[in-house]
Write a structure and sequence with these properties.
A hairpin with a 6-residue loop joins strand 3 and strand 4. The longest helix is centred in the middle third of the chain and has 10 residues. The termini are far apart. This protein has a five-stranded mixed barrel. By secondary structure, it is mainly β.
Length: 151
């Protein structure tokens, strides 16, 4: 086997509502945080402990729009994607590395009504270029003329 695998599967709860933006060319991108919990037994005390890990999730295109429309803080979701690193400099000039999960699949978990978006107190307008209209399809040629019709 000569390949490699970069696959991440997470089930967790959103730490905040997704932030939906559009790139200069109109591609949607959604960003949000996801919390996963690990429960383990402390070896020294024998007590159960819980550790929360936070993940930065990035979704693109149609998946980004779906996340922006249906996901809210506290909702449980299944995320599948790949891990991607980003390097940047902080204010002190130190090189830093961040890791994002680039989602390619999302499934909403929980009860059906859990994902109804509550009405916003103020309407939010998002500008984005409209897709060009698709031309109507041409009817197929059947080879039947008016003389072939019996009435």
């Amino acid at each position: 086997m000569s390949g490699s695998v970069n696959k991440v599967i997470l089930i967790g709860r959103l730490g905040k509502d997704p932030e939906l933006k559009y790139t200069a060319n109109g591609t949607p991108v959604a960003k949000f945080s996801l919390a996963t919990d690990e429960v383990y037994k402390d070896k020294t005390t024998g007590e159960q402990q819980q550790r929360t890990e936070w993940h930065n999730i990035v979704a693109w295109s149609k998946l980004a729009e779906i996340c922006g429309e249906y996901l809210t803080k506290g909702k449980q979701v299944y995320i599948e994607g790949r891990i991607q690193s980003r390097q940047w400099e902080d204010q002190s000039g130190n090189k830093r590395t961040s890791y994002d999960i680039v989602a390619n699949q999302m499934k909403m978990l929980g009860a059906k009504g859990d994902f109804a978006r509550p009405p916003a107190s103020e309407p939010v307008a998002v500008e984005r270029p409209a897709p060009p209209p698709e031309p109507a399809p041409e009817p197929p040629e059947t080879g039947i003329t008016d003389e072939d019709v019996p009435f």
